[in-house]
Amino acid sequence: MDPITQLTEIFSHFPGIGPRQAKRFVFYLLGQNDSANKKIADLILELKKDIHSCVRCMRFFTDNKKGALCGICSDEGRDKTKLLVVAKDVDLDNIERSRSYEGLYFVLGGLVPVLDKNPEERIRQFELKREIERNQELKEIIVALSATVEGDNTADYLRQIFSPITAARGIKISVLGRGLSTGTELEYSDMDTIKNALKHRE
Ligand SMILES: [Zn+2]
Fold first, then answer.
1. 10 lies in which domain range?
2. From ligand 1's centre to the CA of 68, what distance in Å?
3. CB 79 within 8 A of CB 139
4. In this structure, are 166 and 195 located in the same domain?
5. What spacing in Å lies between the alpha carbon of 31 and ligand 1's midpoint?
6. DSSP code of 186?
7. CATH number of the domain encompassing residue 158
8. Residues 110, 67 share a domain
9. Residues 6+ apart with CB under 8 A from 30
10. CB count in 10 Å sphere of residue 24
11. Ligand 1 centroid to 90 CA: how many Å?
12. Which of 28, 56, 86, 128 is the most buried (most CB within 10 A)?
């Protein structure tokens, strides 16, 4: 395969990118000079070097000390009674930018499709359980997943597997309000929508 076809193939696997957009990326790169393209290639190689997954919330963050906590988890000012569960890092960034939430987070790493046989392989449910057990101040788990069939199914699944712990400790499980319309991806929601959805959680 020639480089154009190979790169198109690679870009088409990026989230939300189809073959036509992938090809546009390739032609964009063809129009750049060598130093600009080298910079991109170098950054991709460096990307995972200093970036680690936080041992508590599992989000990616830049740090030299492996195993350390991210800036949010190590911030003493955050409200430890709330834990907001999102599917992806980009959702967390989006909610953080809306400045309407001051509690802790957990990044699930995916969603559970309906009738999936191995949900525990799709999401970080064991890490989430560990986090719920570790945080004895926890009063509310806010499930902030996309308003899609998969998002709803994942929320139901979480409720089901964690109900013994939450019932025993009196922890409330809430979901984002319907400010997010059906089919909306959290990732593409604007700040006001996120603020409203958080305010109207139930
Ligand atoms: Zn963290």
1. 3-46
2. 9
3. no
4. yes
5. 39
6. G
7. 3.40.1360.10
8. yes
9. 4
10. 13
11. 14
12. 86
pLDDT at 180: 56
Q: 95 CA distance to ligand 1 centroid (A)?
A: 14
Domains: count for the chain: 2
- pLDDT at residue 52, as a whole number: 86
- The rounded radius of gyration (Å) of the Cα atoms in the chain is 19
| Residues, CB within 5 angstroms of ligand 1 (ion) | 54, 56-57, 70, 73
The reply to whether 42 and 56 lie within a common domain is no
Give, in degrees to the nearest 5, the angle at Cα 182 between 177 and 186: 65
Q: Same domain for 60 and 23?
A: no
Q: Kindly give the distance from the C-alpha atom of residue 147 to the centroid of ligand 1, in angstroms, as a whole number.
A: 24
- Asked if residue 168 and residue 191 are part of one domain, the reply reads yes
Question: What tens-digit pLDDT sequence spans the chain (202 residues)?
Answer: 899 999 999 999 998 899 999 999 999 999 999 999 999 999 998 887 888 899 999 999 987 666 689 999 999 999 999 999 999 999 999 899 988 899 999 999 999 999 999 999 999 999 999 999 999 999 999 999 988 889 999 999 999 999 999 999 999 999 886 555 555 677 777 788 888 888 878 7
Indicate whether 62 and 122 sit together in one domain: yes
CA of 26 to the centre of ligand 1 (A): 35
Domain identity same for 36 and 91? no
Distance 199 CA to ligand 1 centre (A): 23
